[in-house]
Design a protein that fits this description.
This protein has 259 residues and is of the alpha/beta class. It has helices at residues 41-51, 65-72, 95-99, 104-112, 136-144, 224-232, 251-258; strands at residues 10-15, 35-36, 39-40, 56-61, 75-76, 88-94, 119-124, 127-128, 149-154, 165-167, 173-174, 190-200, 236-240, 246-247.
Length: 259
């Protein structure tokens, strides 16, 4: 168990995207396996989860997903000589093999849900955030709340200047309208969703999500509409994260990180 309250730490790493903007690099290599500072992008998350005492992770795949499973296998450990831990158990949700393509974020989460705990971490496999801590205390606090999701927001990068969501003084994520180009200087601040979050299984079941359990039909569905509906109901909390973070979406951003 990862925390004294007995909440098991489990994660879903989203690694199914095609990486169109990263072509031609992703023509032969899935984006989560591209090297950043000497390691595959996805490995940075796996190491952070293992350091935090996470017990297991599900990795969803589509494009060239067999390479990801071949690279990491069914267990990830830190490789320290004195590390007696059993390592981070890995299993895979192969959307490409089962349905021919990625199911988008909500569709992919519902597909993987049978293998996930009542609460779980999630993060995209193509973001680089080397200092982020998958904090057991944050997991315990979320588990004790009535929230359906807790998001980590970041200051807006150059490629997303308008941001995604707002953040209240009480720590709730806000479904704010996208500002017009002529928005006033005192318009409510919007931040970018880092893709790192804690979710509750109930958020992806009946009432909030209309995809049948396990997504056996391979329904494609985005996550943002679900989040916005839950925000309007006051059921999504958030934290502003100001540590290093990058959406590694283009060859130029990758080169900058490796420069």
């Amino acid at each position: 168990m990862s925390v004294s309250q007995g909440v098991p730490a489990q994660a879903l790493l989203l690694a199914a995207g095609r990486g169109e903007r990263m072509r031609p690099l992703t023509d032969t290599c899935p984006k989560p396996l591209l090297q950043v500072q000497g390691k595959p992008l996805l490995q940075w998350h796996l190491e952070a989860l293992a350091h935090a005492g996470c017990e297991s992770a599900v990795i969803n795949t589509a494009w060239l997903g067999e390479q990801i499973e071949a690279r990491f296998g069914d267990c990830f450990d830190l490789g320290a000589p004195d590390d007696a831990s059993p390592g981070l158990a890995l299993r895979y949700s192969h959307e490409g093999r089962d349905f021919g393509a990625a199911l988008e974020t909500a569709g992919g989460i519902v597909r993987a849900l049978p293998h996930l705990a009542e609460v779980f971490w999630a993060a995209a496999g193509d973001v680089f955030t080397p200092a982020f801590v998958f904090d057991p205390a944050a997991l315990a606090a979320f588990s004790a709340s009535n929230h359906l999701a807790h998001l980590w927001l970041v200051p807006n990068p150059a490629h997303n200047p308008s941001g995604d969501f707002g953040l209240s003084a009480e720590g709730l994520a806000l479904n704010l309208p996208k500002p017009a180009l002529s928005a006033a200087a005192d318009a409510p601040a919007r931040y970018t969703f880092s893709t790192i979050a804690l979710y509750r299984r109930a958020f992806f079941e009946a009432t909030w999500c209309g995809i049948p359990a396990g997504n056996l039909a391979g329904i494609k569905a985005p996550l943002a509409p679900l989040l916005r509906a839950a925000m309007d109901a006051g059921r999504v909390s958030a934290t502003l994260y100001t540590g290093p973070w990058a959406d590694v979406g283009t060859p130029e951003r990758l080169a900058e990180l490796n420069g």
